[in-house]
Design brief:
Number of helices: 18
Number of strands: 12
Largest sheet: 8 strands, parallel
Strand order of the largest sheet: 4-11-10-9-8-7-6-5
Strand content: 5-15%
CATH class: Alpha Beta
Radius of gyration: 22 Å
Structural class: alpha/beta
CATH superfamily: Aldolase class I
Number of domains: 1
CATH topology: TIM Barrel
Shape: globular
Helix content: 40-55%
Distance between the termini: 55 Å
CATH architecture: Alpha-Beta Barrel
Order of helices and strands: HHHHHEEEEHHEHEHEHHHHHEHEHEHEHE
């Protein structure tokens, strides 16, 4: 029969734990986020539906995005045990310079709409973390203001080719003058993809004050107060716009561009050139032969052609075709540090992360971006240790198996 007794204070005292009380509501929210999925749930609660859906959504039936995420989930990681992994090194080299982690912050449009701190918040985190940041042509902070916000950050400028080539050339010259180290040419948007969530939500830039959005404001007052009481949305590349995203893209972008136009890009830009939006081995060869220093295997986060090739699936073939003399990056569907490790093991120089940091931005501004980065960095470090790998450079195809 069990003998019971009243516990003594000396026995209870070691079990008592005091927990630090976080008074700041943003920090309290972010402390509870252990994964990028957690940040996504917080972002969804704190952001108007149309803005969240613009970030979260993809084209048409969103098959491309689901396939990309599913393939990352289906990757099998193959550890090697009995290795000394007491200290691991997550640094790597991108475009000949060190990066503290094997990823860069991807270019995203209309970032100040997700949170009023916008691009400046992201580039400041990039500077502190030691990873590159790419400013979009469709960003909502100017080339010069982003450069001033984080003078020591590694900054890349993402360019869409406009029908007005003189305007595009001016953007490239401004980026060079502001100290951006690389130009990222996005080539998978000859026309806008059919992003049906945006159409159904009546999403415009900036958001229109309709009965629907006014009702939504009651649910997200902080977001609307920040939008209406801070500097009006402007763009890295144009002064203003009043309409849908699709209309904007179709008005500005040049659907006549061909690989021959890379010679024009090379004539006005003399630093590293990254071509983003490659989805086949053949196109990777074409742009490499035309002078690209790096390619990004990307289907635009599933936001252009639905049912497009899944970038992670294409990665090994592209690396085999051009990886000896061209850096190869990959994006779309990345939601964890383990995803980044898997891509690196399959031959990627690094990854571009977009939605993951935007969820953090919507959840808590600059602190949210920092939290997203902390989560990814911890997952990368832990995955390397559990794989029995001490450095990013030691990752090989033997560490992963694609289904």
């Amino acid at each position: 029969m069990t003998q019971r007794q009243i516990p003594k204070w000396s026995e209870l005292k070691p079990l008592l734990r005091t927990r630090r009380i976080t008074t700041n509501p943003t920090e309290r929210r972010l402390e509870r986020a252990l994964t990028i999925a957690d940040l996504r749930r917080i972002a969804r609660r704190r952001t108007p539906r149309s803005v969240f859906d613009y970030t979260d959504g993809a084209a048409e039936s969103e098959i491309s995005l689901r396939r990309a995420r599913q393939l990352f989930r289906d990757v099998e990681l193959r550890p090697s045990v009995l290795r000394n992994v007491s200290d691991v090194d997550t640094t790597t080299t991108m475009l000949g310079k060190p990066s503290a982690l094997p990823f860069a912050f991807a270019p995203t449009g209309f970032t100040r709409m997700m949170h009023h701190e916008g691009e400046n918040a992201v580039v400041r985190v990039a500077e502190r973390t030691g990873v590159p940041y790419a400013l979009s042509t469709m960003g909502t902070t100017s080339i010069e203001d982003v450069a001033a916000a984080a003078p020591d950050a590694r900054k890349w400028f993402q360019l869409y080719v406009w029908k007005d080539r003189a305007a595009g050339e001016d953007l490239v010259k401004r980026a060079a003058a502001a100290g951006y180290e690389a130009l990222m040419l996005t080539v998978d948007v000859p026309v806008a993809g059919a992003r049906l969530r945006d159409t159904r939500n009546g999403f415009t830039i900036p958001p229109s004050l309709t009965l629907k959005t006014v009702a939504d404001a009651a649910l997200h007052p902080a977001w609307w107060i920040n939008l209406l009481t801070t500097e009006p949305l402007t763009f890295a590349s144009l002064s203003s716009w009043d309409g849908t995203v699709a209309d904007l893209l179709n008005t500005l972008f040049d659907p006549t561009m061909t690989v021959d136009d890379l010679a024009w890009i090379r004539s006005i830009w003399h630093g590293p050139l990254i071509v983003k939006g490659i989805q086949t081995t053949e196109d990777a060869r074409r742009v490499t032969d035309a002078g690209a220093d790096a390619v990004v295997i990307s289907n635009h986060g599933g936001r252009q052609l639905d049912r497009a090739p899944t970038p992670l699936r294409v990665l090994p073939d592209v690396v085999s075709a051009v990886g000896d003399h061209t850096e190869v990056y990959v994006d779309t569907g990345i939601t964890s540090g383990a995803d980044i490790v898997a891509a690196r093991a399959l031959g990627a120089t690094g990854c571009l992360v977009g939605r993951a940091y935007l969820y953090g931005l919507m959840a808590g501004g600059e602190r949210g971006v920092a939290r997203a980065t902390e989560i990814l960095a911890a997952e990368i470090r832990r995955t390397l240790q559990l794989l029995g790998v001490r450095t990013v450079a030691e990752l090989t195809a033997d560490h992963v198996r694609l289904p």
